[in-house]
């Protein structure tokens, strides 16, 4: 017998507050503004901490995917706080539509709500796959463009701050500028402006130019760290124990590939599936249309970054080929081949120190992330990759210790690169006007041993 659950009706837009789990803080803040323009009363949840996971464990089996446990825990923790009237509260959750359990979180959430005594609270789905017919967020072309704009702007602001903040001369400049532009963009989106391609082409170079004007000292070399992994744990401070803040405390520059890459990956896979396993002409070619549209703004973002002296990601059409010879594009459950391709792109761009963040037991990530590390190292020997599991039973101190070990290798390499001439000179002895090279130390052997332990 089908489980009965309440449906979010059009009238509820006026009477209910819609709670949003916070996966990507910058992008989702603009997304919330887009929903406000559509007439929804929304709130982006900010409750974090170990109590959120504990709340999730009360209603979700601990073998369930960690992101599902956290999202459900964050919702229930918010409802238990007493801040919201259950009779006038609704929840919204995204569904990928793929084979990953992310498509099934909504059913786990409804069961948890019923067990916790909140069975009257409706859950709305945000998806582009036709799931939850009659109970999904109504999608119009202008609204879809606003959601894409939220990701475009969010990715740009996140990249600019990440590449500026480690070098700024006046602490807090990059954070304040990001906040200023977030306020401005959200205000425009709420009033139905700022999301057209013409407006973004005008605004994005201005944003990048203002970040480039922040006084910085780039002579201070930093360990460059890339972060990849399962989409929720990769972006959510709740899911990865504030990973970006921890890396900042370790004096690193962090490269977190943009959320738009995952959107393009999902769009690409529609036609890839039809090409591999059969499908209609429309299914085989719809991805080309979607990627063409997204690609027009992708060029603007890349140009805005490069023209102002920042590192820019590869266009998606080039990213597709980064994992050629390492993993096939038929591996598309969860983050699939994209995870491998992002690691290769990071290594080739100079972000050789990589954290692969994954929920414990996440099969796609263990295959396409952790399972590809040795192969990537064969092709790119400088790759310094540390897979980090996130789980209710995983302790923060163990996670951070593994990251520190990876960073130690990165710092040694940075020191070697910063002093290419001094180090050999220290190992030379002058004999009768000639030069005799001293005995090499065991640093290389120790470094390999550390890398081996990290690969664990």
Structure report:
The protein is built from 19 helices and ten strands. The protein has 456 residues and is of the alpha/beta class. Among the domains are: 12-138, Rossmann fold (3-Layer(aba) Sandwich); 222-258 and 313-418 and 442-456, Rossmann fold (3-Layer(aba) Sandwich), CATH 3.40.50. Strands 2-1-3-4 form a four-stranded parallel beta sheet, with helices on both faces.
β-strand number: 10
The proportion of strand residues reads 5-15%
Main sheet overview: 4 strands, parallel
The best one-word shape is globular
Strand order in space, largest sheet: 2-1-3-4
What integer value in Å does the Rg equal?
24 Å
Q: What is the residue-averaged pLDDT?
A: 88
Task: Report the CATH C-level class of the domain at 222-258 and 313-418 and 442-456.
Answer: Alpha Beta
Named at the architecture level, the CATH assignment of the domain at 222-258 and 313-418 and 442-456 is 3-Layer(aba) Sandwich
Provide the succession of SSEs: HEHEHHEHEHHHEHHEHHHHEHHEHHEEH
| CATH third-level topology of the domain at 222-258 and 313-418 and 442-456 | Rossmann fold
What is the count of DSSP helices, taking H or I runs of 4+ residues? 19
The SS-based structural class is alpha/beta
Oligomeric status: single chain
Distance between the termini: 46 Å
Poorly predicted regions: 423-447
What helical percentage do the residues reach? 40-55%
